[in-house]
Amino acid sequence: MDGILLAATEVVGKLGESDQQHLVWARELQAMSFVFHIPLVAFGIAFPAIVVFMEGLYLRTGKAHYRALAKRWSKVMITLFAVGVVTGTILSFEFGLLWPNFMATWGDVFGLAFGLEGFSFFIEAIFIAIYVYGWDRIPARTHIMLGIPIIITGITGSLTVIAVNGWMNHPVGFDLSSSGVVSNVRPWEALFNDFFWHELAHMYFAGYMVCGFLVAGVYAFAWLRGQRSAYVRAGMLVPLTVACLASPMQVVLGDWAGRTVAEKQPVKLATFEGLPKTEAGAPFHILGWYEKSTQQVKWAIEIPDLLSILADHDPHGVVQGLDSVPANDRPGPINVVRYAFQTMIGIGTLLAAMGVFYAAVWWRKRRPPRSKWFYRLVVAAGPMALVAMIAGWVTTEVGRQPWVVYQIMRVENAVTDAGGLPIAFFAALAIYLSLAVTVFWLLRRLARNPPEVEVPGPVEAS
Amino acid sequence: MAEVCLALAIIGITAYAVLGGADLGAGLWDLTAGGDQRGGRVRGMIQRSMSPVWEANHVWLIFVLVILWTAFPEFFGSSMSTLYIPLFIAAFGIILRGAAFAVRGQAATMREARSFGAVFASSSVLVPFCLGAALGGIASGRVPVGNAAGAPIDSWVNPTSILIGVLAVVTGAYISAVYLAADAVRADLPDLVESFRTRALGAGAVAGLIAIGGLFVIRSDAHGLFDGLTSDGGLVLVLLSAAFGVLTLALVWTRRLSLARFSSAAAVGCIVVGWAFAQSPYLLPGELTLDQAAANDATLTALLISVAVGLCLLVPSLAYLYRLVLRGTLDQEFQPLDQRFRPLTADDHPKQP
Questions:
Q1: pTM for the full predicted model
Q2: How far B287 CA sits from the closest chain A CA (Å)?
Q3: What is the Cα Rg of chain B in Å?
Q4: Are strands A182-183 and A175-176 parallel, antiparallel or unpaired?
Q5: Which residues contact residue B47 at a Cβ distance below 8 angstroms, ignoring those fewer than 6 apart?
Q6: How far apart are CA B176 and CA B257, in angstroms?
Q7: How distant, in Å, are the alpha carbons of A39, A61, A73, A244, A371 from that of A228?
Q8: Which of A44, A421, B294, B344 could form a disulfide with B348 if both were Cys (CB 3.0 to 4.6 A apart)?
C-alpha cells in the first residue's frame, strides 16, 4: 500500500486552493475544541463500566453505600455526557466550518466511520437517560442491564472517530491519479487502516486511566482529610484499581504505537526526538531544546541508542531523520512536539510505576497501600493522566503537520476561506472557559452534598 | 442511491425539526414565562418534560450532518463555508443551551437557576433562527459551489432566510406547546394543560399566518423556490402541510392532545419534504444537482448498510425510551422551578427504603 505515500501528487481539494490568512487561528480553534472534548471522551469510554460495576457490587452485597455511589456517579455521568454531546456537535460543525475543502474532498472516504459513530452516540443518549432517570422506577435487575448498552456504545462511539484519525495519519482506501484526483473509494478499507488498532487501544486505556484516577482522586482527597467511611473507601478503591491496572498496560501499547509511527511516519518520529539526520544507533534526548539553525538538540540529557531501541527494538537500528523530506514537509514547531511527547512518556512511566506498586502491595499484603504519600500521589494522578492524554494527542496531531492527510493534503489547502476566524476563536475561548468553570463548580458541589441525599424523594427533582 | 441518502437526510431534518425543534421551542416559553413565581410552574414543567429526552433529540442534528458530509461532501463543504456566520452562531448557541439546561437541573439556588435559565432560553431562540436562516440561504440559491464562495452576509440576511428563521422559531414553539400540554395532561396538572394549550393555539395561528404571508416573500425573493412549492409534488405537500396544521389546531381546540402530537409532526414533515421537492433536482439551486453532489457508489452503499444496521438497533431503543416516557416511568416529580429552592422541611426526606 505504501506506494500511496510515495505518490508525487498532492491533493489541492475539490473546492480549489485556499488563501486563508488566519490558518493558525483555525488550527488553534480546532485544537481548543478537542482539548475540551477529549476528557469527556475519556469519561464516555470508562465511566459507564465503573458505574455499572459499582451497581453490581450493590446487587451482590446489598450494601447501601455502593448504591449511593453508583447513583451519584450516574448523575455525574449524564452531566458530562450532556456536555460531551454539545461539544461533540461543535466538532461536527467545525469540520465543515473550518475545513470545508477537507470535508468536500474526503468526506466520502472516511464518512462511514462517522455514520457508525452517530448511531452509537444516539443509542448511548437513549440508554443513559433511561438509566439515570430510571433509578427506583425500573426493577433493579433490569436497571443494571440497561447500563450495558451504555458501556458498549461508549466504546463503539469513540472507536470510529479514532478510526478517522488513524486514517488521516495513514490514508488508505482510495486511488490517487497523477493529477491528484481521488477515485475508487473503498470506505471499509479506510475505516480499518493500519493506525486504527494501536490508536484505539492506546486511547482506551488512557480513558480508563484518566477517568479512574480523576474519580479516585476526589475520594483520596477526602480520605486524606480523615473521612474514613466505607463510602469514601469504595469510591476511592474501585476506580483506583481500574486505573492502576490500565496504566502499566500503556507502556506496552505505547511501544506498539511508537514502532508503528517509526515504520509508517518516520518524519513524525524524527520530530519527537528532533533527529536531524538519518542514523544508526540514534540517541534519545531528554529535555533540552531543538535549535532550528544548527539542527541540534541543546542542553539535553543524551541516552545513546535509546531512540533506535524504541523505534526498532535494536540498538543499532537505523532511524530516519528530518532530512529525509524537504524542509517544507517537516512540522514547524518541533519543540512543541518534543515536549508533548516527553510529557506523555514521563507521566505515563510514573503512573505505570504507581500501578505496579499498588498491585504489588495488594498481592503481598492483601490490602491497599497505607502511606499518605501514596494517596497524595493519587490526588495528583488524575490531572497528570489528563495532561498526558492531551500531550499524546498534541504529539500525534502536531507531529503530522504540515499534512491534514499524511503526505497527501496540506492543512493550508483544507482550510476555509471564510473571514473572521480570530473572532470565532475568541468567542469559543470565552464559551469554553465559562463552561469549564461551570462544570468544575458543579462537580465540586455535587461532591460536597452528603451521600444521604441519594435516597429517592422530592429533593431528587432535576 | 443518492435519492435514498437524501431521503435519510430529510428524515433526519424532519426528526430534528419536530423533536429538537420542540426542545428549542420550549426555550421560548421558558424565556417568556414571567417572573420567578409566576413562571415557576411553567419552567418546572419544561424541566420535567425535557430532561430525559433532549439529548436523544439533539443527536438527530449530528445524524444529518454526518449523512450530508458522507453522501454529499461537496455540498457540505460549500454550504458550511459560505454560511459560516449563522452556523458558527448556531454552534455556539448549541453549546450554551445544552450545557445551561443540564446545569440548571442541578442548580441549588433561585439565582443560579435564573441565570442558567436565561442562557438556555435565549440561545434556544437563537439556534433555530440561525439554522433556519442558513437553510433559507441554500433554498434561495445564494450558496455557490466553492470554498466560502458566497456572500458572507447576504447569504443569510435576506427575506427568505429571515422568513424561514422566524418560521423555525415559531414552529418549534408551537410543537413544544402541544407536547408540553400533552405532558401536563399525563402529569395531571390541569392549569398547565390550559396554559400550554393557549400557547399552542396562539403559536399555531401565528405560524400559519407567517407561512401564508411567507409565500409572497418567497415569490418576490426566490422565484425558483416559489415555483417549486406551487407546482406538482411541492404543491401537494404544501397543501398537505396546511391541512395537517389546521387539523392540529382543531385537535388542540378540542383537547385531543395526544393525537395533536402526531398531526403537528406531520405538518412539519410535509413542509420539509415539500421543500425538497421544490428544490429538486438541485442541492444548491442552479449550481449543484443531486447527482453531481453525490459521493461514489461504494460510499453510498456502505453508508446505507451502516444506517440499516444502525436503525435496527436504534428503532427499538428509541421506541423503548418513548414508551417509558409516555407511560410516565421516567417522569420526574413535578415541582415548580421556584419551589425547588425553598428550605427543606422534615417531610422532604422520606425514610430510607
A1: 0.87
A2: 13
A3: 21
A4: antiparallel
A5: A461, A462, B104, B105, B332, B337
A6: 12
A7: 29, 20, 19, 21, 14
A8: B344
Least confident of A47-56, A239-248, B81-90, B182-191: B182-191
Helices (H) and strands (E) in chain A, counts: 14, 10
| Chain A contact for B87 (CB, 8 A cutoff) | yes
> What is the distance between the alpha carbons of residues A205 and A255, in angstroms, rounded to a whole number?
14
Rg value, chain A, Cα: 23
Interface of B with A in 26-85 (CB under 8 A): 47-48, 51-53, 55-56, 58-59, 61-63, 65-67, 69-71, 73-74, 76-82, 84-85
Band (B340; pLDDT cuts 50, 70, 90): low
- What are φ and ψ of residue A336, in 5° steps? -60, -45
Interface of B with A in 224-263 (CB under 8 A): none
- Nearest one of A136, A47, A29, A54 to A84, comparing CA atoms: A47
Q: Which residues of B touch A101 (CB under 8 A)?
A: 77, 147
Closest CA to A282 of A254, A235, A314, A257: A314
Using a CB–CB cutoff of 8 Å, tell me whether B350 touches chain A: yes
Which tens digits make up the pLDDT trace of A25-56? 989 999 999 999 999 999 999 999 999 999 99
DSSP H or E segment with residue A285:
strand A284-286
With CB atoms and an 8 Å threshold, state whether A130 touches B335.
no
Do the Cβ atoms of B329 and A118 come within 8 Å?
Answer: no
- Please check whether residue A331 is in contact with residue A399, taking contact to mean a CB–CB distance below 8 angstroms: yes
Contact B147, A416 (CB under 8 A): yes
Give yes or no for B295 touching A (CB within 8 A): yes
The pLDDT confidence band at residue B344, using thresholds 50, 70 and 90, is low
